């Protein structure tokens, strides 16, 4: 069958149902993080994000993608630094808490202050402390890339898992396939 230009043009202009696209993205199993920072005026910011990924070993880089409309976004960019806290299976309530806007998200939260002042959430399975390496526009989100200056990891504790729009706290211990 001959492909016409009109058909090609259609291919470059996708008209997906956003709910179906979101649901397809949800097939990918992720962990859950809380990205934190300290704004220039000292106020603390934090948001739940599962768009985290490692990026590079040399230099050591990672990324996450906040939506462009989020109230926290300008503060992350102004501060020029952030921490990524990878949550433990026991921290599901914390993930929900940091996924809702609120005046003082850190009231009652167990955290310490990181090397750049961003909150490091105690009990996380790993925390990475970064300076802002780059910020890229990406549709209705931004890609914030951080250069890692310090990190801690607790390989003994189990991570919180996010799959098909739900938090999974009781996933089985990983079986080795090595
Ligand atoms: C499991 C989970 C993952 C999320 N991941 C992201 C993400 O990667 N990027 C994003 O912009 N929002 C994400 N959100 C939504 C934000 O956490 C939510 O909009 C939050 O209110 C943002 O904080 P703010 O309102 O203080 O700016 C996620 C929510 C949940 C529950």
TrEMBL record:
GO terms for molecular function: FMN binding; riboflavin reductase (NADPH) activity. It comes from the Bacteria. PANTHER family: FLAVIN REDUCTASE, FLAVIN-DEPENDENT MONOOXYGENASE, REDUCTASE SUBUNIT HSAB. The keyword DNA damage does not apply. Pfam families: Flavin_Reduct. InterPro entries: Flavin_Rdtase-like_dom, NADH-dep_flavin_reductase, Split_barrel_FMN-bd. Gene3D superfamilies: Electron Transport, Fmn-binding Protein, Chain A. Residues 25-169 form the Flavin reductase like domain. Belongs to the non-flavoprotein flavin reductase family. Keywords: Oxidoreductase. This is Flavin reductase. The lineage of its organism: Bacteria, Bacillati, Actinomycetota, Actinomycetes, Micrococcales.
């Amino acid at each position: 069958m001959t492909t016409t230009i009109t058909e090609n043009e259609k291919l470059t202009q996708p008209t997906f149902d956003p709910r179906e696209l979101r649901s397809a993205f949800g097939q990918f199993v992720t962990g859950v993080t809380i990205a934190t920072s300290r704004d220039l005026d000292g106020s603390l910011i934090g948001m739940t994000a599962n768009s985290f990924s490692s990026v590079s070993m040399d230099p050591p880089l990672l990324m996450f993608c906040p939506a462009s409309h989020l109230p926290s976004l300008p503060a992350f960019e102004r501060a020029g630094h952030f921490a990524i806290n990878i949550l433990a299976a026991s921290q599901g309530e914390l993930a929900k808490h940091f996924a809702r806007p609120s005046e003082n998200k850190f009231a009652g939260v167990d955290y310490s202050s990181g090397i750049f002042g961003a909150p490091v959430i105690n009990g996380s399975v790993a925390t990475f402390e970064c300076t802002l390496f780059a910020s890229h526009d990406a549709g209705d989100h931004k890609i914030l890339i951080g250069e890692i200056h310090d990190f801690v990891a607790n390989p003994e504790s189990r991570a919180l898992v996010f799959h098909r729009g739900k938090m999974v706290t009781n996933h089985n211990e990983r079986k080795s396939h090595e």
